[in-house]
Design a protein that fits this description.
With about 500 residues, the chain is an alpha/beta fold. The chain is built from 21 helices and 13 strands.
Length: about 500
């Protein structure tokens, strides 16, 4: 029986390429919701590469604020058990992180209402068997994903494995399908040294640093992006796409200059005031800051987004004699670092040391007695160094007994004391790696993203680009060695 597959498509063309290959090798009907800018929209309207039975351009349906149907929204929440204001408040475009436009309550609710009605209409029309999507970074994509799950549509989400240069396809982000415990998996009896060798040879941090270094392209690509935007683009998205509201070209230019200056000033403060030295005479609990804004906070842990308060909570919960080491994330450089006042607040806390983003996370873990994270992989990495940890999100690696999941902040003092007395079992970690390896496949997602950004979007500096049918065909031909094995992995999942 022919399967119906709906794709969530956006500026990243990986899933368009997947659809192009999938239609050749698998009996299916393809549909698409397309969250794209106006200039790129033309490609999707005219392309003859993928035969979508039907497609919907998201922003065509989110126009003109009307009277809000509160009863519909209330019934929707009840029907799907989805908290709409949680999505609205944690959307970086709607609140807290948008320097260009301030959304009103009614505007947010109106957008959410139109999205809900559109998504219900689409699913009622086509009744898809599968949703193929990337990790859900923004609310509109995550909302559709949640509705699909609640309506029994099987989700095939591509996400990065905890081991570098590998990916998994699963129904939930950061979850392995059908993993509830480790008891049924035999141990290979690998030692901690052997397990650590696996981690260091497939280090996600190294991959992420390389990605950060290469993404953004050259000075030439940045100049070309600026020229394309300021001289050639009509900036029509400002009227049609809520994500572009308020983004006048003059404001964008001033914002860029302002952020560049702030980044230099903030980095100077960081270099002069954050710690490098690890004090051997101190008993350490380690907490690592997340890059923000980022989905790991906004979507994964929607009620743990205030990292400064979390640091204060941890500091209050430490036993006497312990020091809290807080490490800044190197990727925060992509967000012009945090405000200096933020760093000063952390430094002011009496039993806290704030560490430089370049300081070695491995050395900090080694010297710590306990690691705490909101949703970071540092809790996973800690196990390889025989360090217990506490995490605030339900991740796939929380199946490890040495990783405690914090459900209530009031439990933190007791949990820290329990964690300090906890031992890591090598067999548990060995079993988990076996399961992870079984669910993973080789795929350099970050490398692909860098390559695609250079090909279509001036190194990732400008998304509203013009794409021709011929250029896309060339890209697919040049990257056939990437799309073919990826398609095979998806077909395996589709056939299960």
């Amino acid at each position: 029986m022919t399967k119906k597959i709906i794709f969530w498509l956006n500026a990243y063309m990986l899933f368009f390429g997947l659809a192009a290959n999938l239609q050749k090798k698998y009996d299916c009907e393809l549909y698409a919701i397309i969250d794209i800018t106006n200039r790129t929209k033309k490609f999707f309207q005219e392309q003859d590469i993928v035969n979508f039975q039907k497609k919907w351009f998201l922003h065509d349906h989110i126009q003109n604020t009307e009277e809000i149907d509160i009863e519909y929204l209330k019934n929707f929440e009840t029907k799907y058990s989805i908290n709409l204001w949680q999505l609205g408040m944690n959307e970086r475009l709607f609140y807290q992180y948008n320097d260009f436009y301030k959304f009103s309550q009614d505007e947010i609710l109106s957008i959410l209402e139109k999205e809900c009605k559109l998504y219900e209409s689409i699913l009622d029309q086509i009744k898809p068997d599968f949703l193929v999507t990337s990790e859900t970074a923004l609310h509109q994509q995550h909302l559709f994903y949640e509705i699909c799950r609640k309506r029994g549509v099987k989700v095939l989400m591509l996400n990065q494995s905890k081991l570098a240069y590998k990916c998994i396809i699963s129904q939930e982000l950061h979850k392995l399908d059908s993993l509830s415990d480790l008891s049924k998996t035999p141990s290979k009896k690998r030692t901690f040294d052997e397990l650590l060798n696996i981690l260091t040879s497939t280090d996600n941090t190294k991959q992420l640093r390389l990605y950060q270094k290469n993404f953004g392209g050259t000075k030439s690509s940045k100049l070309k992006a600026a020229s394309e935007y300021f001289l050639k683009s009509d900036n029509s998205n400002i009227k049609t796409h809520f994500s572009y509201y308020g983004r006048k070209k003059s404001k964008v230019l001033l914002d860029y200059i302002s952020k560049s200056l702030k980044a230099k000033i903030r980095k100077s403060f960081i270099d002069k005031n954050l710690e490098y030295e690890i004090y051997d005479n101190e008993q350490i609990v380690l907490f690592t800051l997340h890059q923000e804004p980022e989905r790991s906070l906004l979507i994964t842990t929607p009620f743990h987004t205030n990292q400064l308060e979390i640091i204060r909570h941890i500091a209050k919960s430490l036993p006497p004699g312990y020091k809290l080491y807080v490490k800044e994330h190197f990727s925060q450089a992509l967000r012009e670092w945090r405000e200096i006042s933020y760093y000063k607040e952390i430094i002011k806390i009496p039993n806290v040391r704030l560490y430089h983003p370049s300081s070695s996370i491995q050395k900090l873990i080694q010297h710590s007695s306990l690691v705490i994270s909101i949703s970071g992989t540092v809790s996973f990495e800690a196990a390889f160094y025989q360090k217990p940890s506490i995490i605030m999100a339900d991740m796939e690696f929380t199946v490890l007994p040495s990783i405690q999941k914090l459900n209530s902040i009031e439990d933190l003092p007791c949990m820290i004391r329990d964690g300090l007395n906890m031992k890591v079992n090598s067999d548990d970690l060995d079993k988990y790696l076996t399961i992870l390896d079984e669910h993973s496949f080789s795929f350099d997602l970050k490398g692909y993203e860098t390559n695609e950004a250079n090909f279509f979007r001036f190194g990732g500096n400008f998304h509203d680009t013009l794409i021709t049918n011929e250029k896309m065909k060339l890209f697919l031909r040049e990257n056939e060695n990437i799309f073919t094995p990826l398609t095979e992995q998806y077909i395996k999942k589709l056939k299960k």
